[in-house]
Specification:
Blueprint (H helix, E strand, L loop, with lengths): L6 E2 L6 E4 L7 E6 L2 E6 L2 H14 L10 E2 L2 E6 L4 E5 L1 H10 L25
InterPro entries: RVT_2
Protein name: Reverse transcriptase Ty1/copia-type domain-containing protein
Organism: Microthlaspi erraticum
Length: about 120
């Protein structure tokens, strides 16, 4: 990655960044054989894909919809990006025979009452 001008970020060893200016910054998230490339500049994304595909066998899956078992939900008009593990949770429930289990908003028993400890 360093050969391609990327710097590994200190906060997460799976995150690389190239071009520190805001307009052309490219983020590359790499975890085993999963990769996500993000940038506000489509030309930079294309350049990174072209460069890396010359060095590694890659398959372009188009706009990201899943990464590391999480669903990526985007609303470009509103500028919102969300991550969801709903698909994973449904898979786990099915594996444990709990697909028809009733959901709850809290894991606490319904009779459990919280008491005030005074001023916070």
């Amino acid at each position: 990655m360093k050969e391609s001008g990327f710097i590994r970020r200190s906060y997460d060893s799976c995150v690389y960044m190239r071009n520190l200016n805001k307009e052309n910054a490219v983020y590359l998230l790499l975890y085993v054989d999963d990769m996500l490339i993000a940038s506000g500049c489509k030309a930079e994304v294309r350049l990174v894909k072209d460069t890396l595909s010359q060095k590694f066998e890659m398959k372009d899956l188009g706009p990201a919809s899943r990464i590391l078992g999480m669903d990526i939900i985007r609303d470009r008009k509103k500028g919102i990006l969300s991550l969801s593990q709903e698909t994973y949770i449904e898979k786990v429930l099915k594996a444990f025979g709990m697909s028809d289990a009733k959901s709850t908003i809290t894991p606490l028993a319904t009779h459990f009452k919280l008491k005030s400890l005074g001023k916070a």
